[in-house]
Amino acid sequence: MSVLDPNALSGRRVLITGASGGIGRVTARSLAAAGATVLANYHSDRASVADALQGVPAERAVLLPGDLSTPDAARALWRAADIDAPIDVLVLNAATMPETPIDGSDDEWDAGWELAMQVNVISAGALLREAVRGFAARGSGTAIVLSSWAAEQGSRIRDVGAYAASKAAIRNLAQTFARAYARSGVTIHVIAPGVVRAGMGIAGKDEAAQAAIAEGLAMGRYVEAEEIADVITFLSANGCPSLTGATVDINGASYIR
After folding, report:
1. For the whole model, what pTM was predicted?
2. What architecture is the 13-247 domain classified under in CATH?
3. Sequence ranges of the domains in the chain
């Protein structure tokens, strides 16, 4: 159930990266349901994004191909999204979680680190920088950065250390920007989900494996993607500007700070 009325984001243009993923699809639908014009970025799976925004008027559902493999690609994505009218909200959702096995080969370790840092930090940071500078020039704008509970406590999976480190890095950059632009009308929020029943949270896991993971969580269940989407939609409305710089933990009390 949406936490916002159908007009909460009316007139706002929201760019969300990784809209073809589990959280991304649900969030794109939630933003559109709240009245936003959704610019949904995807890497290759256009069909998933089109399905997520099915029924949304064409003028409020813009599908934008593009990856975050290089900073230039990230900047090009921002220019493509911002060309017709200014973007009001950026949701940095796209991410990759390559394995960086401690006992693997040096090549595998290096390749995993390079990919995680490139996509999750360098390119995401370049896109965030473009957004923040544009927001500051206009005197308004909101960025929402998806981090992870792994960024707060280290990953519980030993061979995805690069992912955890990258999520800590992008969180820190978001916090730095939030402080630097606090008087410029720019609000920046970080969301740190726990184990989500979508996308990377369930990839490659059968029902028995998912049940075992859920049993180890405080609430005995996964975080639902809809819960993440509702928080993103709420933050997109910028109803509490003083929340800028904060990290919102959504992990069902499995990690409490």
Report:
1. 0.95
2. 3-Layer(aba) Sandwich (3.40)
3. 13-247
